[in-house]
Design a protein that fits this description.
Layout: E1 2-8, E2 11-16, E3 28-36, H1 41-45, E4 62-69, E5 81-84, E6 87-88, E7 116-117, E8 134-137, E9 145-146, H2 153-158, H3 162-172, E10 180-184, H4 188-199, E11 204-209, H5 212-221, E12 225-228, H6 235-241, E13 248-253, H7 263-271, H8 280-288, E14 289-297, H9 310-315, E15 319-322, H10 327-339, E16 349-354, H11 358-367, E17 374-378
Parallel strand pairs: 10-11, 10-13, 11-12, 13-14, 14-15, 16-17
Antiparallel strand pairs: 1-2, 3-4, 3-8, 3-17, 4-5, 5-9, 6-7
Family: Belongs to the zinc-containing alcohol dehydrogenase family.
Protein name: Alcohol dehydrogenase
Domain Alcohol dehydrogenase-like C-terminal: 188-261
């Protein structure tokens, strides 16, 4: 089969790879029809995530058709069209029983630190991802769900990570009616977090980024006030000024490990690998939220140390909430919102890239060229 293969930092190629096979009675093999490049895939592409091995296939956002099932699979059959959450999870452990699918204890040798994910290095279990023609799906009765007839393929693939993660970011922020919510980052997750904040009762939504095309999308898709941090000496001072000098009630970090805005932090994280990620956005969140406020973190960080201003968080009495999104838990409510027509998530899609052209797609996404916000990946016919 054809698959994207990692060759080292900033080097990926599409080549022939062995077909995935049923390795356990609970496995399925899915023929991929559509995928996506996630902003967090860039952390792998840039060599930021530990134990990203040469030969790995990326891609944790994908939908497709069930090609083969193991003898114990009961909920799926060959030919079913499914959307697959990015979390690999068993559905039965202590954490899964509580809906914490992203913290499953049975799918990753490093499970005390992180759960399982498709295509996201051996720190998350070493599972190949869906930027390929076929992918092995463990615990097939737990993760995948049939794609409802009334949603498009593009909507379905956005439901496998970006949309639920943005929605989850707003949930973690504990928004109450009338709150001022600041979202740091106007990528797909930040845009969905900003749009979701309104659904949860926000009275004012502010989005911060430094890419004008993304800020424009934040205004037209998420109806947010926007600020370009590159145009201000100190974005935290500005955010304080526009929030009555108190700070925002809630701040959502939708940026994660590769935040711009501080050269020292960028060099010590992205270049020297001395931190698990640049904490610029998280530290801005801690500084920009009001005392007693809540900081929600859904931007991805590596497992190593990061220079976070924890003392400021403690002394301000902040609530810090964070996790990888338990995607499947978000689906029932999100499907209600989509069926009601509250918004169309595909408005943020800017590129549709064939599998064979994925190396170019990674370059476009990484360099933020051509107005790129969310590229989808088309596979097969």
């Amino acid at each position: 089969m054809r698959a994207l293969v990692y060759r080292g930092p900033y080097r990926v190629e599409v080549r022939e790879k062995d077909m995935p096979r049923i390795e356990h009675h609970n496995d399925a093999v899915v023929k991929v029809e559509m995928g996506a490049i996630c902003g967090s895939d860039l952390h792998l592409y840039h060599g930021m995530m530990p134990d990203t091995r040469v030969g790995t296939t990326f891609g944790h956002e994908f939908i497709g058709t069930v090609h083969e099932v193991g003898p114990s699979v009961r909920n799926l059959k060959v030919g079913d069209r499914v959307m697959v959450p990015f979390n690999v999870f068993c559905g039965t452990c202590f954490f899964c029983a509580r809906g914490l699918y992203s913290n499953c204890h049975n799918v990753n040798p490093n499970a005390t630190a992180v759960g399982g994910m498709y295509g996201y290095s051996h720190t998350t279990g070493g599972y190949d991802g869906g930027q390929a023609e076929y992918v092995r799906v463990p615990f097939a009765d737990a993760g995948p769900s049939l794609i409802p007839d009334w949603i498009s393929d593009e909507t379905a693939v956005l439901l496998t990570d970006a949309l639920p993660t943005g929605y989850f970011g707003a949930q973690l922020a504990d928004i109450v009616e009338g709150d001022t919510v600041v979202v740091l980052g106007a990528g797909p997750v930040g845009l969905f977090a900003a749009r979701s904040a309104w659904l949860m009762g926000a009275g004012r939504v502010i989005v911060v980024d430094h890419l004008e095309h993304r800020l424009e999308k934040a205004r037209t898709f998420a109806f947010a006030e926007t600020y370009n941090f590159a145009e201000h000496d100190d974005i935290v001072v500005l955010l304080k000024r526009v929030t009555d000098h108190l700070g925002a009630d809630r701040v959502i970090d939708a940026v994660g490990a590769e935040a711009d805005g501080n050269l020292l932090m960028h060099v010590t994280s992205a270049k020297l690998k001395l931190q698990g990620g640049s904490p610029v956005a998280l530290n801005w969140a801690i500084d920009a939220v009001r005392k007693g406020g809540t900081v929600s973190v859904v931007g991805a960080y590596g497992p190593m140390f990061s220079a976070v201003k924890f003392g400021d968080a403690m002394n301000k009495g902040l609530t810090l909430r964070m996790n990888q999104c338990p995607v499947k838990r978000q689906w029932p409510r999100l499907l209600e919102h989509l069926r009601a027509g509250y918004f169309d998530p595909t408005e943020i899609v800017t590129h549709r890239i064939p599998l064979e052209h994925l190396p170019e797609g990674y370059h476009i996404m990484s360099a933020k060229l051509d107005g790129c916000i969310k590229p989808l990946v088309t596979v097969g016919d």
